[in-house]
Amino acid sequence: MRQVYLIYLSDSRYDYAGLINTKRMKVSPKLGLPYLKGALNIKGIKAEVFDQDINNFSMDDLISKIKVDQPFFVGFYASERLKDSVLLWLERIRQHCHSTLLVVGGPGFFSYTDYHQVGCDIVCHGEGEVTVLEIVEYVQGQRNLASIRGISWKDGETITVNAARAPISDLDSIPFPIRENIDKYVDNHYFTMKKPFVSMMASRGCQWRCSYCASPEIWGKITRCRSVKNVVDEIESLVLNYKIKYIAFKDDCFGSKLSWLREFSETMVLRNFGVKFSCMVNPSDLCHGYEEKIILLKTAGCDMLIFGVQSADPDILAKIGRPYIGVDALPSIVRFSKKSGICVVLEFIFGLPGETKASVNKTINFVSRVRPNVVQYNLLKLLEGSDLFNSKQMDDVPIMISHRQLRKIVFLAYFRHYLAPEIFFHNIFFIIRYNPKYIFSGLALILYPFTMAVRLICSGCFSLKKD
């Protein structure tokens, strides 16, 4: 029986402003292609997901399998980080498998012309749960490519971009993702993580319009929520089938609607799964009535809140379309969250328009004052589809701080943060109280800053001398 091949290629991950390779500490459970597999499965179409992060297959392995099995099509997940790898694999597969239908989807679809030029037949633009079924119908001779919304396709040297597909309005209509090899995924970044764990989404889209983010172009410009019942039913199936203990929600802004959050919290208490979860929130969504929202999240099982702050400099936030009011309320929000037994993560982006050494230090000093459990400093990556990428705004902004300077500042900031007695002992007590097994699984992360310091100093990439 013919089937569909869905491919995740591996990437080398660097976090913390490029200081630490986190590949061995984090292998994230995938969500996009399992959703496609679930949609195909409902229609009786078999699909196999190949994840190179957990099964290190080679290009030759895949080509040999394609030649033998002759799948309906081979689909690659594409993103900014994976673009070069996907292009390479597409080009090589096309050379060896001339008649195989090659498809690309995922958040990297903005580069559709690049994928078509190396042999990709179809690129899915936006959500794919409906589109993937229509592509199978095309392979079966039941429709033509011109009738499929939300794709670009190549015929000879001509690339055609069809009309956009409207975002799926009823997210409850989407079949649950079909997950596999759950026990092979791990994330030792955060103190609260337990295995087995999965990722989920309770909503798609975001009400905010941050210029560095491509989410509005990927998910549409409105927030769509699954019903509480639909979300909790999926959690129940994961508990029954996989004995999961932890969920990493990947919503852009989890629980931004208070009425939804109240119902979710009440339902989770009634169902009493004993499952904990982490979620990402925008500071501005919590600045009003944050105590009630945090209590609702805690009651539902949340033990880690991840805030995308990006900068503590109001001028930089204004340039990227972020309100400062959320940042201004963060000290109180963080204190209350930690007091409630929730681990707090603050994430920042360095290199945004107008960034200077002074603005970087302002952000680092802000972190010292707020004192979250975990802080992450990341370097700006211009995302195709974002306003910042499309406007070419960065071309007009002089670079006021070098990459080497930034690495040094960030490195010292991590030591300053994690070795501060209040942070260090609070985190140790938090781990002992809420997740003592992490002491063993997270040892590599705890030791990583020290081993990285030795590497950088020995290699001459880092010194304490002024630049």
Shape: globular
Radius of gyration: 23 Å
Low-confidence stretches: 459-467
Work out the helix count.
Answer: 18
Q: Measure the end-to-end span.
A: 63 Å
Provide a descriptive summary of the structure in words.
The protein is of the alpha/beta class and 467 residues long. 41% of the residues lie in helices and 17% in strands. The chain has 18 helices and 19 strands. A seven-stranded mixed beta sheet has the order 5-1-6-7-8-9-10, sandwiched between helices. Strands 12-15-16-17-18-19 form a six-stranded parallel beta sheet. The longest helix is centred in the last third of the chain and has 17 residues, at 443-459. The protein starts with a strand and ends in an 8-residue tail after the last helix. Mean pLDDT is 88; it is low at 459-467.
Give the arrangement of secondary structure elements.
Blueprint: E1 4-8, E2 14-15, E3 20-21, E4 26-27, H1 32-42, E5 47-51, H2 59-69, E6 74-77, H3 83-96, E7 102-105, H4 112-117, E8 122-124, H5 131-139, E9 151-155, E10 158-161, E11 186-187, E12 197-200, E13 203-204, H6 215-219, E14 224-225, H7 228-242, E15 246-249, H8 258-271, E16 276-281, H9 283-286, H10 290-300, E17 302-310, H11 314-319, H12 325-339, E18 343-350, H13 357-370, E19 374-379, H14 387-391, H15 403-418, H16 421-434, H17 438-441, H18 443-459
Parallel strand pairs: 1-5, 1-6, 6-7, 7-8, 12-15, 15-16, 16-17, 17-18, 18-19
Antiparallel strand pairs: 2-3, 4-11, 8-9, 9-10, 13-14
Helix pairs in contact: 7-8, 8-10, 13-15
